[in-house]
Amino acid sequence: LSSAGRVLSIQSHTVHGYVGNKAAVLPLQLLGFDVDPVNSVQFSNHTGYATVKGDVLDGEQLWALIEGLQANDLLHYTHLLTGYIGSVSFLETILRVVEKLRTVNPNLIYVCDPVMGDDGEFYVNPELVPVYREKVVSVATMLTPNHFEAEQLTGRRIETEAEALAACIDLHAAGPSKVVITSLSIDNMLTIVGSHVQSRGKSPEQFKIAVPKLHSYFTGTGDLMTALLLGWSHKFPDDLDKAAELAVSSLQAVLNNTIANRSKTGASPEPKPEQLELRLVQSVDDIRSPAARFPAVKL
Ligand code: ATP
Ligand code: PLP
Ligand code: MG
Ligand code: NA
Ligand code: MG
């Protein structure tokens, strides 16, 4: 079996639970990728728990790992994937990594989830915004912001589907040929909007996928979503709508499995964070071969 590709995935690691690399690596491996994870933090658990302990990798430590790989001629990647990044200096180092990887493979696909916040609030230092906006977006091949992040990156308010599509066009103009706004809250629905410029100068092909909003707050779903989008758009490079249908369908199956488990473990009205950890290992069949249950609507 030939490898689908080789991914350098720079994301968080948690000892317990499934966010960051813990949410991305297994799915990508199941889709046939060789994945080399760099753990940008090593925390006991995600930040939604009462206590978090652990260490953060700094930019120099990241660069040392890249130098080690380079010294052994191991920088041959088809994809770079980045998620949550906690500091400007680490993000600046990511930019150096992109440049370095492209000296080895000029066709490197950089899939960037510009994690900054959600629901109108930052969970990173807002100093990261101009760095993403002015430097990172222009080198990304695929960008997967949520509603809030798309607003931050474009300076637009997004209140309608038309405004979301306009934001995608702004982002294409800055660089990435594929943009997926991974969660938009419009009219109480959860909508995914995708936009793909097939070739330079052409107008984008755009679509949306609506899913029912579940009444729980999950963690790691954004990371899983971006990993699945990377995976499926490698298999269907000209059909972002198809890739997104498959990614969304897998994700919804994982969430259903997660909720089904929760109802068996107790009936407290407010689930504890551990009850909502993604049931990833129990969902391998849904990751490998999802039943496409959420059709994309072309716009
Ligand atoms: P990021 O913060 O990583 O940029 P994000 O805010 O879009 O991205 P999530 O809010 O976790 O990340 O959503 C990612 C995907 O997970 C959505 O597209 C949706 O398919 C699924 N999802 C997350 N939460 C829910 C929910 N409560 N109900 C239904 N689907 C959900
Ligand atoms: N990484 C760490 C360390 C986290 O604590 C979290 C959320 O709490 C995440 C990543 C990401 O989550 P999501 O994929 O839900 O955006
Ligand atoms: Mg969100
Ligand atoms: Na996202
Ligand atoms: Mg997120």
Question: Could you explain how this protein is built, in words?
Answer:
- With 299 residues, the chain is of the alpha/beta class.
- It is 39% helix and 21% strand.
- The protein has 9 helices and 12 strands.
- It has helices at 21-30, 59-71, 88-104, 128-136, 147-154, 161-174, 221-235, 240-264, 284-288, and strands spanning 5-14, 33-43, 54-56, 79-82, 109-112, 117-118, 121-122, 142-143, 178-186, 189-196, 205-211, 297-298.
- The strands form 2 sheets. A 10-stranded mixed sheet has the order 3-2-1-4-5-8-9-10-11-12, sandwiched between helices. Strands 6-7 form a two-stranded antiparallel ribbon.
- The model has no long low-confidence stretch (mean pLDDT 95).
- It binds adenosine-5'-triphosphate, pyridoxal-5'-phosphate (PLP), magnesium ion (MG) (2 copies) and sodium ion.
- Sodium ion is lined by residues 113, 144-146, 182, 222, 226.
Features:
10-stranded mixed sheet; single chain; alpha/beta; binds pyridoxal-5'-phosphate; binds adenosine-5'-triphosphate; binds sodium ion; 299 residues; binds magnesium ion
Put the structure in a nutshell:
By secondary structure, the chain is α/β, with parallel strands linked by helices.
Shape: globular
| Biggest beta sheet attributes | 10 strands, mixed
Helix-residue proportion = 25-40%
DSSP helical segment count: 9
**Which stretches of 5+ consecutive residues score pLDDT under 50?**
none
